[in-house]
Protein: Histidyl-tRNA synthetase
Organism: Croceitalea dokdonensis DOKDO 023
Amino acid sequence: MKYKRLSKEQFLELHQEFINFLATQSITAQEWKDIKANKPEVAEQELDVFSDLIWEGVLSKVTYLENISERHMHLFELAEKEMKLISVKVLNPEIDLRTKVGFGWFKRNFQSDFVEYLTASKAYGEDKNADKFGLIQQGAVITKGELYRWFDEMIG
């Protein structure tokens, strides 16, 4: 398995897609029940293959990721040839960017001496989607990129 197996909730959301996936392999509903009951290792493999296919599709389309912690924001733009990073560090120890109050403080003080910015870019390794997935494994979430674009305009 290249990525991570989808959760039970994700499989439920993608129920129809999974049925279509099985159909492409000429596996009927009855055959799938039989496989689950009598060949659980084959069923596990099918779940893993389907999960990887879904992840590949998602990762190939993702353009922005955000990883926000108590006092850091790591905002990524996943361009064609490289990953671009805008890193924001809040130096005020009383602030938690994950809270409404903390983010409100940040919006009022983003140009103060209590906030540091860093930009960087890095070429992808051999597998662009694996690099993206690594960021997700570290806590990044897929976004539409509003924050990244706002900062890019502000500090660019």
Summary: The chain is about 50% helix and 20% strand. The mean pLDDT is 94. The longest helix spans residues 40-61. The first strand starts at residue 64 and ends at 68.
